[in-house]
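To fix ideas, we reproduce below one chain and its tokenised fold.
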Amino acid sequence: MFFHPMDFLIIIAFGISLWAQFKVSGNFNKWSTVHASSGLTGAEVARMILDRNGLYHVPVEVVPGRLTDHYDPISRTVRLSEPVYYGRSIAAISVAAHEVGHAVQHKQSYGALVLRHRMFPIVNFTSGVAPFLLLAGFLFKQFSLLGLGIIFFSFAVAFQLITLPVEFNASSRAKKFMLAEGIIGHNEERGVNKVLGAAALTYVAAALISVLELLKYILIFTQSNNSEE
């Protein structure tokens, strides 16, 4: 009853997502074995770029796990996983510089990031409620609930789409920072591009899945309404 032809596209997109995650892991592993010519650790690179941008108050902390790196906008803290914090590889310094890129975006009130932060409380609520509204709409054939569920789900989709320019911009900043400060040479750009490009692909795949799911629900809603008329 819940099957729809667009499920094929969603399955394909899900496959792309799995492939993207595999690429992230594979590229990180590969370039983790290639030492950066600067000899700096991820933590040192993060601290250097933060200080160059006047972000002396933003701490760099180590967190357990692998690929758990992130920038916390609430506490304004750059958190790096152990392999990145202590690592001296192309992969480590690329990831560290990318997370610092978010801190600089925050300082400069980068438009997409500001919008993303403002949307977060709304999306946090709507993404939790949307599945129940959609399920109730399907089970009880209540098109008003289905429509409301679609509206709520669309906020989550918009959030993921807005995330794309935020992530791409942070990666672009990371490369520019590292080249400008002499942290990497031009011969090391390829490795940086591989690491950051694979990570960006995961966000693209996640956004694609969400968009296809939203289109599926909209088509079901439209067809159901037409059949009732």
Q: What stands out?
A: Residues 41 and 86 are 5 Å apart (CA to CA). DSSP finds seven helices and three strands in the chain. The beta strands are 60-63, 70-72, 77-81. The chain has a mean pLDDT of 91.
